[in-house]
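Quarterly update from the structural biology core.
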Amino acid sequence: MSQHLQTVQAFFERATGSFIDGAFVAEGTPFDVLDPSNGQPLVTLATGDRELADQAIALTKKSFDDGRWSGMTPAARERILLRFADLVEANGEDLAQLETLNQGKSINLSRGVDVGFSIDFIRYMAGWTTKLEGSTRDVSIGMPEGAKFNAYTLRQPVGVVGAIVPWNFPMMIALWKVIPALAAGCTVVLKPASETPLTVLRLAELAIEAGVPKGVFNVVLGSGSVVGTRLAEHPDVSKVTFTGSTAVGKQVGHAAVEHMSHFSLELGGKNPMLVLEDADVEKAVNGALMGGLFNQGQVCAAASRFYVHRSIHDAFCEQLASAIDTMQAGPGMDPEAQVNPLVSRRQQESVRGYLDRAREQGAKIHVGNDVPTEGFYVSPAIISGASHDMEVAREEVFGPVLTVIPFDDEEQALRMVNDSDLGLAASLWTNNLSKAMALTPRIEAGTVWVNTHVTLDPAMPFGGFKMSGIGKEFGPEAVNAYTELKSVCIAY
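Predicted structure, tokenized:
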């Protein structure tokens, strides 16, 4: 089992609370940050409040207005962001251990995805700093007679960004918001989830070390109902970006629109995996394990409802059951453990509640190996032969629960796939190219994978349809979302 680095322990001793204007803020009500593997405190921090949020917003607005960041040349900002990526890479083991200790996930996942993907993401987004562009427009304005016109568009940073991020990928999702905003020239106030503030605080330190001026990227700890609400409703916040549940996302959007702030919402998913009759069952099972149990199913894009052709339904369920029966539970810091704790007691109780109600509804549930009673563990579970109208098949469980539903024809399956208020992601499993090409446009989801699931790339836009959100992460779409498009028309 990996040992904590001395530098991680030093961070615990250094961090006291929010990070504003390049320094930790020790004032505030103390709260314990827990280790999900045993429920014990890792560190005690001072939580922020409405007043601290207002102070941070005022400072962040000042840092935007005085041009200490937006006034730099694009190349200078790019160099700083690339230096930040280098520092994330150099401090990767510290960040991975902080992520695992705080969130509970496997250290393998923290190293390979939370840190590894983030490094690639920062470098990709840093490149957009020098590539934001407008365009010239050929206009046909007829007045006044004889006048000539030159018209063009500019992309300019929107201003202060309020970013509210969840607990499932606290480091990575924070960077998904902070880096495109900084690349566009914005300044940022970020509120991490109360359960998982540690990696974000360390990132804020590294940003200063990389050369991001003090006051440009600030972190305020606190509850969503207080600090999150203040970020969403504050008139000096020009853009609000939120990842979390659909219910809270609606509240954020309503608050932001009161003062016409821009907002983007990356919300919940109840993501289907459609397995056709001709699919390779072994590959589909491996895809289900990856897509459904990645980070213990605590993934907005996780596969959670599986529509499997009746001819291969039983074989699919049997292979899934055999796979989870071999998985051993343990803390995320144990690289051999395949089943790790959920993030909190509340999340553990929520997932258990879904399983209890599914049993009451007569579902057939296969549960994996026993898990430790200490900490916030839930053993992976397969619900087989389920019906499409069951709660567990329609609501976002956000845990290691795989609900498998048989179907007889593809049109029936497609109706069930699309019969949801949510439309974040989906996957289709088939060896028939014609069916893949015909069905993917008909699946109502922002991302549709074929013969894979939860695979992301910084260049590929990610965001949902329907109640799964507004706006996109990744690609040029992400950077453009932190800009205002201005038209300029010059008469001569």
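The chain has a mean pLDDT of 97.
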